User: Fold this.
Amino acid sequence: MPKKRRANGRNKPAGARGHVKRVFCESNGSMVPKDKAVKRFMVRNIVESAAIRDLQDSCVFDSYVLPKLYRKVYYCISAAIHSKVVRVRSVEARRIRTPPQRMRPADKKKDEKK
Assistant:
């Protein structure tokens, strides 16, 4: 029977290592091997957007920047597809191992220099 994916969807070369520690899926709590899980880095404000302006108005310091919440999130494959974190790819597209191009906003410093 043919294999669907190289290394069965795990992030390791074929025959590299045995077991890997498991992590909890964010959405359904199942245990997933760390190299198979879909990993995303979530950056959020500690304060919700409705309260940011109130805090900035009542703050004593003018240039105080509110801290952010940094968290690495793991999903199992089925939960990532269900919550549209990743999409199902065609048979030819599954062979492409390079990550897709990231769309980043242009740096403000570069715009000011022009």
Remarks:
- Helices lie at 49-58, 77-82, 108-113.
- The first strand starts at residue 22 and ends at 24.
- The radius of gyration is 20 Å.
- The mean pLDDT is 85.
